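Consider the following input, taken from an annotated entry for Glutathione S-transferase (Rhodanobacter glycinis).
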Amino acid sequence: MMIARCELAADHPVRKSVQHRLDSLLALVEARLAQSDYLAGSEFAAADVMSVFSLTTMRRFLPVDLSPYPSMLAYLQRIGSRPAYGRAMARSDPDLVPLLD
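Applying the prediction step yields:
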């Protein structure tokens, strides 16, 4: 996020390096979610709680297109359909529409 705020040129080496790392990370998460419903296995766990902000709310500040990652999008739908997620979002910021797609 800090690099995005610097408004570096698209061909700047630092920006390219950060983008490459982000792309690699998203590919790893996608591969994991293609094999498992949740990050740590077949059940919702702390790993999911820790990661969901980066895949949802954080994208309001640093837009990332997740359309190339169908397993990740399905994962976000599973997370969003959890009653506890809905309650948490309603309590924390009732006007915020989660980015689940």
